[in-house]
Amino acid sequence: MSEQNIFREVDEELRSDRMRALWRRFAPYVIGAAVGVVLVVAVNEGWTWYHTNNAAQSSDELYAAFDAIDGGDLPAAQTQLDALIANGSGSYPVLAQFRKAGLLAKEGSVADAVAAYDALANNQSNTRLRELALVLGGTLMIDAGTLADVESRVGSVAAEDSPLRNAAREALGLAQYKAGDFAAAQANFEAVANDPLTQSTVRNRMGYYLAQLLSQGAITAPPAVDSADAAATAIDEIVSDEAPAEETPAADAPADQPPAADAPAATTEAQPVTQ
């Protein structure tokens, strides 16, 4: 064996000894880190499975409550919603609270429903859910409360940057109409109608509101509605629905047959539509 080979074998042996020494020194840390990673992954997967399983169960309970409502079994639905609010997972308890408030309103317990919506608005960190609760509560207060009650809930939601601004403006307009503040009601209805994001069905509803104000003489100036002339369209639809069908002119009598003596004279002018 050459001297070079001997030195190489000795060097490899020394390296092997150093590696074994390093492994004995750091092996507990390496093994501990590996075990820690495995435990973290296992806990995360278990937590995900637990929440997914609970969310699926909560979803089933919520839809069971919906089915009970559709079937007319309101007490059973309320019991299921209460259980879901207390023990549900994820966002399902919040959805159950909204549905329970709507169920209270359906049963005629408007004060309780408004209180439930107010509680949701006060406890929500999600801005959009808070605004939704305010609009729903404010809408109920149109008939059950005063203009101040509606304004205190939907006034802040009627801002331009809110996705629910048009629902808030409609509720405000109706409350103002009820309170006799017709100019403010007109302004809110026109703001909804002129919003480019307003759906056609909502725009037409604003047109009916404005047509009602005009027909009552509550406003004197024509509504300033730019989008599709919603107010004029609404008035035309109302008139066309109430007007009698146009009379078909009678066929000319043959020349050799004299007209009947007692035939009434044909009318040449249409009677005005009584509004």
SSE map:
Elements: H1 3-70, H2 74-87, H3 92-106, H4 110-123, H5 127-144, H6 147-154, H7 165-179, H8 182-194, H9 200-216, H10 230-242
Helix pairs in contact: 1-2, 1-3, 2-3, 3-4, 4-5, 5-6, 5-7, 6-7, 7-8, 8-9, 9-10
Short recap of the structure:
Helix content is 71%, strand content 0%.
The helicity comes to over 70%
Distance between the termini: 123 Å
- Major beta sheet, specifics? none
Proportion of residues in β-strands: under 5%
Question: Please, how many helices?
Answer: 10
Looking at the structure, what is the overall shape?
Answer: elongated
- The H-and-E topology, N to C, reads as HHHHHHHHHH
Strand count: 0
Rg result = 37 Å
Mean pLDDT: 75
Low-confidence stretches: 242-275
Instruction: Please identify the structural class as seen in this structure.
Output: mainly alpha
Question: What would the keywords be for this entry?
Answer:
single chain; 275 residues; mainly alpha; 10 helices; elongated; disordered C terminus; Tetratricopeptide repeat protein
Q: Could you describe the 3D structure shown?
A:
- Residues 21-134 form the Ancillary SecYEG translocon subunit/Cell division coordinator CpoB TPR domain.
- The chain has 275 residues and is mainly alpha-helical.
- It has a domain at 1-107.
- 71% of the residues lie in helices and 0% in strands.
- The chain is built from 10 helices and no strands.
- It has helices at 3-70, 74-87, 92-106, 110-123, 127-144, 147-154, 165-179, 182-194, 200-216, 230-242.
- Helix 8 (182-194) runs antiparallel to helix 9 (200-216).
- Residues 242-275 have low confidence and may be disordered.
